Amino acid sequence: MKTLVFQLLTIFCISTALSQTPTFRVLDAQTEEPIPYATIVTGAGRGTITNEEGYFTLDPQTLNGKGIQLSCMGYQSMKLSEGQLAGERTFRLVPAAIQLNEVLLSDRVPTADEIIRKVRENLPVNYAAGSTPFSIFFRESEYMDFETLEMELEKASDLDRRQLESAREELRELSTDIEESQAVKFLDFNGTYLRDGDSSRLRVGRATELVDSKRDFSLEEIQERGRRIILTHLDSSKTYKVKTGMFTIEKDLSPELDMEDSPKSDSTETSHLKGELVDLLSVAGLEEGGRLFGFLDPGLYKYDFLKATYFDGNYIFAVRFAPKKRKARYAGTLYVDATTFAILKTDYQFARGREGEKVNLKLLLGIKYVENLDRGTVIFRKSENGFYLPYYVQKEYGNYIYLHRDFTFIENSPSRKKVRFDFLLEGGVRQKQSLLLTPQDPQDTPESLADLPRKVWVQKLDSYEPTIWQNTEIIAPLEEMKNFRVAN
């Protein structure tokens, strides 16, 4: 009887502990440093991944009494029971020390070029070309950093001195608020994604957004706020034209009508979210035109054998790639299975001295744009049918922006009174996107994917609420997201 009671209490304690969707952490056993992108397998084709700080959250309903397995490139795998998960929150993986001769499939080490050639030859065998439905979790974090922001009234023939100084002071205050804002926005959504040939479909289950509306400083929003400050000081009984440079951008603008607040939408287009998802998935593309496929072009890139390593019972070749031609922009490392020659993981970034798209019309139109950050990680996992499918994709990119424009408000009257507004912005935008994919059985894919809603409701949050994603496989939030609060 005592034994039965003890067993029931143990089961109850474990169940209670796990029902809270706890957060765990994975560290290096030697250095105590967090291990990012360690995979957590909870069942066939199911699981999650540690974030950049080594954390992961776990849905207890996915365990079914089988426990989990932790794996990461270069470490010995670890199996954990439900009981261990109920009692511990931090786990340490031991680096895997292997000898190169353990990996050899012949009497010599293959060259980097030979490995890449084998990878290309085995692409049709290793990667499925057909349609595969996925359960997905997508996260986007967006940051804005302003080095310079100046908004100034240079000429105002329709404003008296008091109005002019008042408008200038409001613009200076707005500039200061924006420069000091450290604006950030987080978007999460999950759902079902299916790609079939050239077409794709997305059904969103839930979408949330963490953003302080007072700190929502997109370029369009900044210009709009500056313009609206000026409109408050113009004659509401008159209409105006607005010109910037050589272009008339708006005709018959009425301050009275334009100052009416338009309602903020709590929804977004499904096509917009699908576009973000498809763009991120293209990073993992191993078909012609895909980014990873481009890294396998020996005409553009040169290769060096780095080392042999270990992942989840398999020996791995690590091959470094770097630009050979000016057209190539990236450098990084490909981790290749020594038996199947499938790519299991890729890390990439802009090579030294390389940048992305550039537009420099600073003298002509007051615009300069440079894509100065592009890096990411792609991880594949072998499915039950033997194909390798994308499991985790992350991309971080940023740009430098210089925008200098003047707006002239011209009164529609014989006097044609003018107000000239000068706008100068210099700074950067950085965006990080992460995607976790879990393959589904095609028979379990809802037929309703054929009839998708045009818009998706986005739940606006003042702070991160983990209970919203309970019983859902997600990417654990970073500390900055957990600590996010909307300012009073």
UniProtKB/TrEMBL annotation:
N-terminal signal peptide:
1-19
Keyword annotations for this protein, in alphabetical order, are: Coiled coil, Signal
Source organism superkingdom: Bacteria
Coiled-coil annotation reads: 157-184
Say if the entry is tagged with keyword Acyltransferase: no
Q: InterPro entries of this UniProt entry? A: CarboxyPept-like_regulatory
Among its keywords, does the record have Acyltransferase? no
* Protein name in the entry: Carboxypeptidase-like regulatory domain-containing protein
Q: Which organism is it from?
A: Robiginitalea marina
Cite the source lineage.
Bacteria, Pseudomonadati, Bacteroidota, Flavobacteriia, Flavobacteriales
